[in-house]
Specification:
251 residues; alpha/beta; TIM Barrel; eight-stranded parallel beta barrel; 12 helices; globular; binds 1,3-dihydroxyacetonephosphate
Length: 251
C-alpha cells in the first residue's frame, strides 16, 4: 500500500515570520488526516525553524526545494544536502521545471543531485513533466521517458525504491489549467509502466507518484482518486492554510 502524500512547494514566497505563521495556521486547521503525509517545502531560510516546529507533529515532514550537487566547498550562495539534513528536513525537491528552465539545470546535473540527496539519507522528490509544445506534438510520453531515464535510471533498485516522483506538466504549473484526470492518470500509469520495465513489478507498484500543476481544493479529490496518483505537489494553493489542509483531506 503506497503512502498518500501532499507536499507544499512554497517556492520563493513568505518571509520568515509569515512562514512560521502559516505553519501555525495549518496546525490549527483541523481536522487533518494523519494517514496523509503532509510535506512542507519552504525556502531554505525557514527549514530549521519549521522542522523544529513540526518534529513532534504526526504526519508532517519538511523538504528543501533544491540542493547543490556537490558535498561542500567554495560555491557562494549554495546549500548542500548535508546542511539540509542537519536542519531536520527529510526530503529535497529535485528537478522542478522552474529549476530546469530558469537555472539551466540539466538531466546530468539532476542525476548528481539525486545521488547526493540519497547519500545524505534524504528522500528526493524528483520532478518531471512535458512542455505544452511536447504535448501538442504528441511527444509528452517520450519527453517524460527521457527525463526518467536520464535523471533516475542510473540508480540501483534499492536506491530507486527510496524516492518519490512528481509529474508536473509545465503547462499546468501556475496557469490554472489543471491536467484532466485522464491526462494525469494516463501519464502516471505510463511512468509506472516504465519503472516496471526497468526495475520490475514490486518496485513500480511501490513508487509514490505525485501530481503537480494547478492542483487545488476543488480538483484534488478527483485527481487523487486516480489509481496511479498518490497525492500532490502543490504550489499556489499551498500558501493558504485552509486550502492546503482541504487538499490534504481530499483522499
Ligand atoms: P501550482 O500549484 O501553483 O500550479 O504549482 C505547482 C508546482 O510547481 C508545485 O511544485
Amino acid at each position: 500500500m503506497r503512502k498518500k502524500i501532499v507536499a507544499a512547494n512554497w517556492k520563493m514566497n513568505k518571509t520568515f515570520a509569515d512562514g512560521l505563521q502559516l505553519i501555525d495556521e495549518i496546525l490549527n486547521t483541523t481536522p487533518v488526516n494523519n494517514n496523509v503525509i503532509k510535506i512542507i517545502a519552504p525556502p531554505f531560510i525557514h527549514l530549521a525553524a519549521i522542522a523544529d516546529k513540526l518534529k513532534s507533529k504526526e504526519g508532517f515532514a519538511v523538504a528543501a526545494q533544491n540542493c547543490h550537487h556537490l558535498k561542500s566547498g567554495a560555491f557562494t550562495g549554495e546549500v548542500s544536502a548535508e546542511m539540509i539534513a542537519s536542519t531536520g528536513a527529510e526530503y529535497v525537491i529535485i528537478g522542478h521545471s522552474e529549476r530546469r528552465m530558469y537555472f539551466g539545470e540539466t538531466s546530468s546535473l539532476l542525476a548528481q543531485k539525486v545521488n547526493i540527496t540519497l547519500a545524505n539519507n534524504l528522500t528526493p522528490i524528483f520532478c518531471l513533466g512535458e512542455m505544452i509544445e511536447d504535448r501538442n506534438a504528441n511527444l509528452h510520453l517520450e519527453k517524460v521517458k527521457q527525463q526518467l531515464k536520464e535523471g533516475l535510471f542510473h540508480l540501483s533498485p534499492s536506491d530507486f525504491s527510496k524516492l518519490i516522483i512528481a509529474y508536473e506538466p509545465v503547462w499546468a504549473i501556475g496557469t490554472g489549467v489543471t491536467a484532466t484526470t485522464h491526462q494525469a492518470q494516463g501519464m502516471h500509469n505510463f511512468i509506472r509502466s516504465e519503472i516496471n520495465k526497468k526495475y520490475g513489478k514490486n518496485i513500480s507498484e511501490n513508487t509514490i507518484l505525485l501530481y503537480g500543476g494547478s492542483c487545488n481544493a476543488e480538483n484534488a479529490k478527483d485527481l487523487f482518486a486516480c489509481l496511479d496518483v498518490d497525492g500532490g505537489l502543490v504550489g499556489g494553493a499551498s500558501l493558504k492554510a485552509n486550502d492546503f489542509v482541504a487538499i490534504a483531506n481530499s483522499f
